């Protein structure tokens, strides 16, 4: 999914993402720190309370007149236990060494909820503890608390009892303080988030501005025309290298395009020169032979000399006419048709062009009497005559030749078709039909259809064809219909 996101969006999202991650990490560390702080605080406080109670118990054992034994602990602390609990503001219990409850500072009605006998696990853990102290986590009435166990010693450090101190943690103050800190932290990060969004937007826009300029120029790069170089003020090192590479590429493209255009022009002129030379040589050969033959056979005293001179002249004139037609064909192909944009009745002009041909198998048909388009009369006639001439040359060996020229409306276009039932166009020749110099005929230069396509496209028209070898071909020409009326 991220692959389809723009670089600007990636930079923007990344900056916001890291701000959020930073907030989560700091909040987590803050909560963890408060948790550790609370744990250490309560552990130290419980140890202090325990030590204070032990000091009070030791003081009571020093003042008592009873022998300090396990059996006398109940008598010794009959009233003292309440005074100590009141002074230290915490309740505690005293057990014998077997884990049986001796005395508790809790009121009488709460004593029933206290365990009267310690578990063997507690006694074993306490006995095996290096510092003779054991703390366990317990729960009562839905609340969790810690319970510490330590020995009560006499003056000779002999164990006479077990001190149990239930310690309930009061975290209300710390929790309230933590909430306040998290609330302030959230507010600060919300403000930081807004600043980060604005900063991310401007930074991403600044970083990608040069890239966007380069992208736009790359999209506008056209090999057929001169391209402008990219100029960006104070670019970064990476962007500067990219811009330099692009500008160098543009220079190389211009040099290559100039060389290519020059080469193409030279090649075109070479091909055209070869074609012209080839076509001119064709009539020159029979002209030379005719002159040589006439020179050998010329006899001023020959009674048929006038007839022979006439025939010789006729042959030369035919060859000269052929050369003239060659020159005209190349001239017509080379010249782009002038856009006269006359308002013409296409039906009338096409019919007039078809009527030039005398063959009775050439027919014209149109259901419309008038279709108006802006074209050049002479160029339109050239299109029709060339297409009809090609059709007549394609049906030379057909028993019942037929050529049909039609004109009709096709939406916003005037459509002209020239259909014949000739030999058709082979599959390998289809892509070359409109190329200059291409021809399937034994005579001619193959410039006719190239010139026709040139004229049609000049007037924003289209030309195409369908063919079936052995059955015929249909050429279709479309020109845009004029919006305004009037005919010529």
UniProtKB/TrEMBL annotation:
It catalyses: ATP + protein L-histidine = ADP + protein N-phospho-L-histidine. The keyword Cell membrane applies. Keywords: ATP-binding, Cell membrane, Kinase, Membrane, Nucleotide-binding, Phosphoprotein, Transferase, Transmembrane, Transmembrane helix. Its EC number is 2.7.13.3. It comes from the Bacteria. The keyword ATP-binding applies. Pfam families: HATPase_c (PF02518), HisKA (PF00512). This is histidine kinase. It comes from Arenibacter algicola.
């Amino acid at each position: 999914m991220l692959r389809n996101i723009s670089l600007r969006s990636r930079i923007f999202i990344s900056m916001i993402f890291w701000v959020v991650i930073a907030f989560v990490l700091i909040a987590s560390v803050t909560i963890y720190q408060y948790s550790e702080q609370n744990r250490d605080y309560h552990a130290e406080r419980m140890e202090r309370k325990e030590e204070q109670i032990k000091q009070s118990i030791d003081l009571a054992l020093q003042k008592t007149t009873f022998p300090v034994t396990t059996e006398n602990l109940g008598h010794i602390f009959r009233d003292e236990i309440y005074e100590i609990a009141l002074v230290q503001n915490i309740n505690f219990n005293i057990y014998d060494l077997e884990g049986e409850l001796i005395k508790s500072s809790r009121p009488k009605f709460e004593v029933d909820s206290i365990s009267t006998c310690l578990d063997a696990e507690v006694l074993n853990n306490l006995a095996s503890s290096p510092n003779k102290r054991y703390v366990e986590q317990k729960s009562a009435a839905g609340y969790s608390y810690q319970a510490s166990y330590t020995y009560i010693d006499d003056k000779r450090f002999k164990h006479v009892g077990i001190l149990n101190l239930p310690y309930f943690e009061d975290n209300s103050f710390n929790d309230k303080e933590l909430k306040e800190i998290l609330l302030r932290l959230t507010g600060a990060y919300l403000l930081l988030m807004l600043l980060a969004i604005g900063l991310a937007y401007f930074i991403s826009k600044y970083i990608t501005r040069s890239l966007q300029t380069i992208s736009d120029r790359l999209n506008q790069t056209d090999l057929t025309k001169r391209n402008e170089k990219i100029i960006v003020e104070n670019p970064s090192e990476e962007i500067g290298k990219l811009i330099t590479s692009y500008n160098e590429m543009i220079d190389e493209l211009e040099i290559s395009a100039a060389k290519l255009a020059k080469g193409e022009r030279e090649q075109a002129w070479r091909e055209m020169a070869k074609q012209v030379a080839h076509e001119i040589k064709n009539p020159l050969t029979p002209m030379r032979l005719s002159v040589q033959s006439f020179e050998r056979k010329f006899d001023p005293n020959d009674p048929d000399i006038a007839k022979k001179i006439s025939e010789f002249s006729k042959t030369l004139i035919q060859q000269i006419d052929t050369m003239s037609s060659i020159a005209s064909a190349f001239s017509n192909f080379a010249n782009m048709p002038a856009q006269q944009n006359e308002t013409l009745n296409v039906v009338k002009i096409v019919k007039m062009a078809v009527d030039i041909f005398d063959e009775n198998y050439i027919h014209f048909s149109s259901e419309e009497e008038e279709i108006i388009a802006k074209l050049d009369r002479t160029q339109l006639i050239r299109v029709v005559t060339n297409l009809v001439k090609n059709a007549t040359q394609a049906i030379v060996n057909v028993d019942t030749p037929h050529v049909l020229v039609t004109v009709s409306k096709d939406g916003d276009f005037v459509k002209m078709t020239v259909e014949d039932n000739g030999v058709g166009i082979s599959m390998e020749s289809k892509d070359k039909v409109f190329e200059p110099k291409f021809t399937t005929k034994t005579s001619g230069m193959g410039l006719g259809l190239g010139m026709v396509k040139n004229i049609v496209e000049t007037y924003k028209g289209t030309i195409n064809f369908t063919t079936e070898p052995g059955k015929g071909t249909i050429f279709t020409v479309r020109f845009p219909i004029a919006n305004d009326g009037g005919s010529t």
